[in-house]
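thread: overnight batch results

M.L. [08:02]
morning all. the overnight job finished for the chain we discussed friday. pasting input first so we're all looking at the same thing
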Amino acid sequence: MSEHGLHHVTAFSGPTARTVDFYTRVLGLRLVKKTVNFDDPGTYHLYFGDEAGTPGTILTFFPIAHAAPGRVGIGQVSETAFRVPKASIGAWTHRFVAMNVAHEAPVTAFGETVLRFRDPDGMPLALVGVEGAEAEAAWAASDIAPEQAIRGFHGVNLLLREAGPTVAILTGALGLKEVGTEGSAVRLKGDAALGGFVTIRAVGDFLPGRQGAGSVHHIAFRAADDAAQAAMAEALRRDHGLDVTEQRDRQYFRSIYFREPGGVLFEIATDAPGFAVDEPADALGTALKLPPFLEPHRGRIEAVLPKVA
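M.L. [08:03]
and the structure it wrote out:
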């Protein structure tokens, strides 16, 4: 059975070393895979997550050193949120102050404490305090206490012109359920423990988004296997009239893509085979891994990629 929720979120960032430093040292995530953009192998594709790169924990980046900044607007992810133990929000606030991380004062949204902040490229992020999350497994950097560490995704916020068509996709084909509204925002939830929430804020006519450093390229939802993915694709075509791509092998999962009615690029990714398919679990992220079709070009690829600390 599929667990319904996020598989991963993929974004653009600026310099590679700065991206790795922020997400590993500041946020305490593990670099679980160092590979390249299969469609543009002169660019890294970096995956950050928990110890194993569990679906629902994975934030990935295409780092481009001199990328122009993006702009959040209509048809984009407006916030990517991680779940942390509720009691850790104060400690994270102190950490952000000490490490000069741009952040806001904690607020309450949908009954939960939310600490909003930005990465060095201005990407909107948040920590959401979740009751009982301290009992969940976590990967933590050496100076982040286990009771404080990030547990994976809480969810994403979408900024759209209207909510209805996208809600229909999420509930009709992707297995989420509407669980509440707050002002102009509607919240949906899947049954996955990690990355279960999608919140849509409908704002009518507004500035369109612009992709660049600090903006999300796409979000991926989970499918247990190829059969579950195929069933979701069929529902999208049959019930919603959407164009869905053929399946593409991404080495660590298999993917299909479609543009949802609000303009956000959605992916459906299989849980299998996972990130230990080409390197030992205890060595994840330590070596540059290439898919078989790019391996003959390793020398040329390594020559143009920047060093990763």
